[in-house]
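Appendix C: a fully annotated inverse folding record. The material below is reproduced so that readers can follow the format used throughout the book. The structure is listed first as tokens, followed by the designed sequence.
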């Protein structure tokens, strides 16, 4: 009995000693040995970027598992502020916005997380992730010490960062590092007080143990205004850059510590009217191998790009909006499919760390559901009672989207012609104030298109008193550079001849809500009109069924728009995104299987802005089983940011 008591006491003492000697999880920068330390041991990450906001929640696990099986030990993700706080004080972390669920999945799969919460993120995302309602103060200086901007940032981070704290590595979560701002050295303001405020703010919510870092282009110029004491300075560059020179720039800001490329570009971004960007696999793997041999930590941007569903795409300047697809020529395609680049990168990683055992999830099957006949429903101008939930607003001069408390989509401006225009008369935006594309009709007849930076004058005809309708499309806010305070709508006056147009009736359009509620399906259908080069913006509807006797349906698919020009598409009330096959390079749009039903009709709604094919040929859209995002176009885009 005494022996048993002695054994029990000894066991208890041993357990108590173990509880005191087992170190808490830790992650830090080891400046002495130029490395990271994870739980006191040398560590370097091989990471890939994935944006949860560009991938439906039902596919998060599949994409993350494929990244894990590629040999990655970490992922990197942004947090877009405007995705979670669409209106001031109204937060959304549900469904596809359930960030905490995403982080938990990462932990469950054994992936560490490099978190980039902004407040500005760039990411080719609308306004770089900043909410458009910040522009209510018209002279606000974004990404600076501007008092109103700081107040909004403090409130947002006061909501977000406490939610993130339990997911920090030292608290048992997957987050090893947290970025402060993003590529700030490329912004004009160079406001160190702003960066210092953010560091202090992040520390106040996350504690002193978390590793904060900054990311800037791999040059001393960019690091001059982007790096700051208290946050570890890293660089970003692509496979065409000089690796040695880029890391020498990092060493200028950080003489000691690990070499880190926070954005190693596996591909590049696209713009409407440009060519689809492709970066050769051979070049990517060569430079990746070079950096890993140097002992650097590397994050591949992107490892999977995903999709700019709805209106979430950004734009660059001179004004060039990005398309719906954010495929990025990444190792995993927009639809999460495995590529040659994926396997080549995995082969490189195998040389530096063990690849996990187990089955690699396959590419998801795709199905071609075929052609669907579309019928014209109503023009936008004929649908105002359905679309404008808030009703018309009278104003002497045009109001912007922000003035009308509308963030995205389309807004209609209506007035009458003040003079007779029996001969073609110039309708102009002399200050280039159409942001971004305006579809002009006179008494219901299409008259032309005004486009930011490209077409600022068209000629119209009509009688004095004729109704002038101008539907303005917000095509995505600038996400990079000094012009991110990007107001939408008619942001300056229009002129007709020598007359300034006034006395506007303005309609904020809730098209997404109207489509979700099926309001446009209860209005009957119109006969197709005579063929024209340009017709008034109008809605079209169609439906199709998926056989329930075929196994494994529904499956992912792609929708294409033969001979349609430009517009927006919804499937079962979900905004798939913008189509613009007449400009390219994207021809098909990705349609995830979870949107489709085998037990009910699947409804398609189009908003065609320019002209349908219905009077001259088949009035159809078509579902196909392979994507086309690389169509050659006749347009050229002058913009190119950074070094890929």
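Designed amino acids, in order:
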């Amino acid at each position: 009995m005494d022996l048993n008591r002695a054994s029990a006491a000894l066991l208890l003492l041993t357990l108590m000693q173990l509880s005191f000697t087992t170190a808490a999880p830790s992650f830090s920068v080891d400046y002495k040995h130029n490395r990271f330390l994870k739980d006191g041991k040398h560590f370097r990450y091989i990471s890939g970027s994935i944006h949860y906001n560009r991938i439906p929640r039902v596919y998060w696990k599949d994409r993350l598992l494929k990244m894990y099986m590629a040999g990655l030990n970490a992922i990197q993700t942004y947090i877009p502020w405007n995705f979670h706080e669409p209106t001031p004080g109204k937060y959304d972390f549900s469904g596809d916005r359930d960030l905490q669920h995403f982080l938990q999945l990462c932990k469950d799969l054994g992936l560490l997380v490099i978190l980039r919460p902004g407040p500005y993120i760039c990411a080719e995302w609308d306004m770089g992730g900043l909410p458009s309602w910040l522009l209510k103060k018209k002279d606000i200086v974004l990404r600076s010490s501007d008092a109103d901007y700081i107040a909004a940032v403090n409130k947002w981070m006061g909501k977000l960062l406490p939610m993130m704290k339990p997911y920090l590595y030292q608290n048992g979560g997957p987050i090893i590092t947290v970025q402060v701002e993003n590529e700030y050295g490329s912004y004009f303001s160079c406001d160190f007080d702003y960066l210092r405020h953010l560091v202090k703010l992040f520390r106040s919510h996350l504690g002193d143990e978390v590793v904060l870092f900054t990311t800037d282009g791999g040059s001393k110029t960019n690091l001059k205004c982007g790096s700051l004491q208290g946050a570890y300075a890293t660089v970003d560059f692509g496979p065409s850059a000089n690796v040695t020179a880029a890391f020498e720039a990092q060493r200028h800001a950080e003489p000691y510590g690990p070499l880190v490329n926070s954005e190693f570009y596996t591909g590049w971004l696209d713009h409407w009217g440009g060519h689809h960007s492709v970066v050769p696999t051979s070049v990517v793997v060569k430079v990746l191998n070079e950096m890993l041999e140097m002992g650097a930590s590397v994050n591949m941007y992107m490892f999977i790009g995903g999709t700019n569903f709805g209106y979430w795409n950004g734009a660059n300047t001179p004004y060039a909006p990005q398309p719906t697809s954010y495929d990025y020529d990444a190792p995993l395609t927009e639809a999460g499919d495995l590529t040659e680049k994926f396997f080549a990168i995995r082969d490189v990683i195998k040389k530096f760390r063990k690849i996990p055992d187990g089955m690699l999830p396959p590419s998801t099957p795709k199905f071609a559901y075929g052609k669907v006949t579309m019928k014209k429903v109503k023009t936008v101008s004929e649908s105002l009672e359905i679309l404008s939930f808030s009703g018309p607003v009278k104003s002497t001069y045009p109001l912007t989207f922000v003035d009308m408390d509308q963030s995205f989509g389309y807004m209609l401006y209506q007035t009458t012609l003040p003079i007779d225009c029996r001969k073609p008369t110039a309708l102009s935006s002399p200050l280039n104030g159409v942001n971004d594309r305006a579809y002009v009709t006179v008494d219901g007849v299409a008259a032309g298109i005004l486009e930011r930076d490209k077409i600022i004058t068209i000629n119209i005809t009509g009688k004095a008193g004729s109704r002038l309708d101008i539907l303005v499309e917000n095509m995505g806010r600038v996400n990079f550079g000094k012009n991110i305070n990007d107001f939408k709508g008619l942001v300056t006056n229009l002129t007709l001849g020598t007359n300034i147009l006034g006395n506007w009736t303005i309609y904020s359009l809730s098209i997404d809500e109207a489509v979700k509620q099926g309001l446009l399906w209860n209005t009957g259908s119109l006969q197709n009109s005579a063929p024209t080069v340009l017709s008034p913006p109008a809605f079209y509807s169609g439906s199709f069924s998926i056989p329930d006797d075929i196994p494994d349906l529904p499956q992912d698919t792609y929708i294409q728009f033969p001979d349609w020009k430009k517009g927006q598409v919804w499937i079962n009330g979900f905004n798939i995104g913008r189509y613009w096959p007449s400009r390219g390079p994207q021809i098909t749009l990705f349609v995830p299987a979870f949107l489709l039903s085998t037990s009910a009709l699947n409804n398609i709604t189009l908003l065609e802005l320019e002209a349908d094919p219905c009077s001259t040929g088949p009035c159809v859209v078509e579902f196909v089983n392979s994507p086309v995002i690389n169509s050659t176009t006749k347009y050229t885009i002058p913009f190119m940011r950074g070094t890929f």
